[in-house]
């Protein structure tokens, strides 16, 4: 935003609405005041000034972009106050005539805004980019192809064939709208509809550019490289300014948003900047302790499993997760240990385990002998848990 050069007008105060007023509240406040101060109703010269202020406030607050400028402390109607888009001066008339009509007769369809500019800003575009965890974690320069509208190079956006020019629409005399007169309690009221000959532009293209048929832009496929910073997350959007759709008449391009989609990883699941993985260790290793080598995203780390490790135990490897997108440092890697119980024991192994159980006072009934196994097991373990 620009620096504030003058005290911004209190547009909210003029309409008597709160700063968080909804579009509806703003419209209602405007209609009420417009009915009160319209020059046809209220001949007081002060009322005339007031009516102008009300219209200006409504023009600003009913337009999201202008309202945002106000909320940032600026004044979109001040000379050089920022916010004049690529449409430039004259991009829109003052408050639409229809809004004033609405103030008296209630909302009706078909708002009329005078000639509309042929050159208008383009819309934003969004593109989905699939990345692997290594790429979201450490960043990548990803090639992308974008299908968007770009400026027609034949006519440079003008829409006219070489050597020709726009012509004023004869049907509406360049106004972009045709008017009819109604008699109302306010006196004669002029209402208008967009001109159908020029679609409201006020101008016609006698010889359209053969490449773009007068639109000033053509669709094309472009290749770009987008720099993905380290630490991005699934669902985040990266904005590439003015890489979106070029507008009609070669208007300023909108932005391109690249939305990150992270492919699921075979080993790691991600929660924020932390990573989680599961490692299975044999029962004996869990009991006796062991040293594992854990593959992290970018290294191999020796990790000690302490003797007596229980199923579900978690080891935390600090700063082995995903680098933080903002600031320095990284998340952690959590290794969840699954303890595997042997499933097939040969005779020797079974004997050893039974002897082991005996030394622990944990004898169990042989399953083959059946009969109240669960109750006996409960008894056997009572007091040894
Ligand atoms: Zn063209
Ligand atoms: Zn026309």
TrEMBL record:
**Start-end of each CXXCXGXG motif repeat:** 152-159, 169-176, 195-202, 209-216
Q: Where does Zn(2+) 2 bind?
A: 169, 172, 195, 198
Principal location listed in the UniProt entry: cytoplasm
Decide whether keyword Metal-binding is in the record.
Answer: yes
| GO biological process assignments | DNA replication; protein refolding; response to heat
Residue ranges occupied by any CR-type domain in the UniProt entry: 139-221
Q: Recite the UniProt cofactor note for this protein.
A: Binds 2 Zn(2+) ions per monomer.
Instruction: Please report the name of this protein according to its UniProt entry.
Output: Chaperone protein DnaJ
- The organism's taxonomic lineage, starting at the top: Bacteria, Bacillati, Actinomycetota, Actinomycetes, Micromonosporales
């Amino acid at each position: 935003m620009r620096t504030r050069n003058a005290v911004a007008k209190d547009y909210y105060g003029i309409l008597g609405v709160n700063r968080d007023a909804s579009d509806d509240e703003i419209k209602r406040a405007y209609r009420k005041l417009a009915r009160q101060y319209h020059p046809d109703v209220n001949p007081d010269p002060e009322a005339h000034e007031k009516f102008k202020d009300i219209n200006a406030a409504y023009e600003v607050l009913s337009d999201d972009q202008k309202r945002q400028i106000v909320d940032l402390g600026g004044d979109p109607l001040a000379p050089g106050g920022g916010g004049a888009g690529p449409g430039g001066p004259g991009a829109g008339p003052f408050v639409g005539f229809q809004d004033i009509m609405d103030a008296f007769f209630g909302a009706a369809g078909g708002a009329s805004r005078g000639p509309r500019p042929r050159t208008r800003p383009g819309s934003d575009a969004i593109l989905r980019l699939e990345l692997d965890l290594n790429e979201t974690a450490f960043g990548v320069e990803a090639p992308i192809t974008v299908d968007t509208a770009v400026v027609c190079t034949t006519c440079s956006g003008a829409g006219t064939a070489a050597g020709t020019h726009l012509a004023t629409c004869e049907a509406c005399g360049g106004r972009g709208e045709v008017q009819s007169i109604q008699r109302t309690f306010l006196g004669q009221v002029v209402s208008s509809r967009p001109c159908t000959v020029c679609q409201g532009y006020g101008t016609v293209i006698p010889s359209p550019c053969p490449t773009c048929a007068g639109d000033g832009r053509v669709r094309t496929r472009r290749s770009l490289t987008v720099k993905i910073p380290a630490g991005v997350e699934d669902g985040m959007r990266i904005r590439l300014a003015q890489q979106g759709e070029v507008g009609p008449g070669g208007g300023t391009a909108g932005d391109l948003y690249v939305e990150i989609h992270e492919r699921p990883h075979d080993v790691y699941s991600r929660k924020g900047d932390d990573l989680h993985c599961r490692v299975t260790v044999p029962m004996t290793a869990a009991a006796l302790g062991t040293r594992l080598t854990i593959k992290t995203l970018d290294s191999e780390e020796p990790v000690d499993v302490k003797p007596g490790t229980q199923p579900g135990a978690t080891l935390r490897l600090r700063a082995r997760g995903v680098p933080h997108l903002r600031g320095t440092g990284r998340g952690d890697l959590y290794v969840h240990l699954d303890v595997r119980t042997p499933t097939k024991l040969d005779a020797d192994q079974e004997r050893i385990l039974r002897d082991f159980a005996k030394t622990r006072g944990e004898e169990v009934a042989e399953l083959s002998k059946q009969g109240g196994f669960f109750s006996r097991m409960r008894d056997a373990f009572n007091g040894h848990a």
